[in-house]
Amino acid sequence: MQHCLRLSWIPLLIALFVPPGHAADPPPQKPTPLDIEFTARCDQTTQRYILLLPEQFSPEKPHSLLIALHGHGSDRWQFVKDPRGECQAARDIARKYNLIYVSPDYRARTSWMGPQAEADLQQIIEELKSKYQIDQVFLCGGSMGGSSSLTFAALHPELIAGVAAMNPTANHLEYNNFQPAIQASFGGTKQQIPEEFKKRSAEYWPEKLTMPLSISVGGKDTSVPPDSARRLINVLKQLDREVLLIDRPNEGHKTSYDDSRAILEFIIQRANSKKEKPAK
Hints:
The chain is an alpha/beta fold and 280 residues long. It is built from ten helices and eight strands. The protein has helices spanning 2-8, 10-17, 78-81, 85-96, 115-131, 144-155, 179-186, 194-199, 227-238, 257-276; strands at residues 34-39, 46-52, 63-69, 100-104, 134-142, 162-166, 213-218, 243-248. The chain has an eight-stranded mixed sheet with strand order 1-2-4-3-5-6-7-8, sandwiched between helices. Strand 7 (213-218), helix 9 (227-238) and strand 8 (243-248) form a beta-alpha-beta unit. Helix 4 (85-96) packs parallel to helix 10. The longest helix has 20 residues, at 257-276. The N and C termini lie far apart (82 Å).
């Protein structure tokens, strides 16, 4: 009985020595992915994207935005949940730099950045800028998402501060895989609408790619061959752009976690450095 009485004093003693309110403080909560629904202005359809605010988010402070574009056959959840290197690296970089992280459907599952996907992404950026203090917008993606990142950046360079493309094509006129999906996205075949295929091929518009840009490719990639991406980087180097190419001759259609992280670090660091330079 006396033993029980002695133990009963322990909670009281703890309460006396713990600062008021300390015991009641909840543990810090990790941000929860928000599945956002919106009505697309271009055709009034219901579309979606995932929004993940940073752990140290403050509505009173500016935050940069990282938009991650999924690959062929996937949807908005790929870059939020998938453990593969490309996706994990994007999430980790967003966490490291306290970025707002967004992964859109952009007309999943076979998006390829056609006119409707392009309009959706424009609308998402516009709406996020109206709701939050957005500093810079970075764009990344793998495979179809990497190709789409290059396409969107070439079409809207004024919106994008940096692009990291993993295993992309930069030339839709020469690319021959996934044609039924690309034709559905673009609105016809290469023969029917060659101008549309050229318009969405970043290789034809290097002068528009003024932002820091990085690409990773695999020499044995037959799903999205690396040649057009290599040519694009070479031209951008001649234009004295800030670019990085990670070329793995013995790899196929994938980018490792370390390489994915490296190309993302490159664009963010170069964009931040560019922003901090005093105007001449």
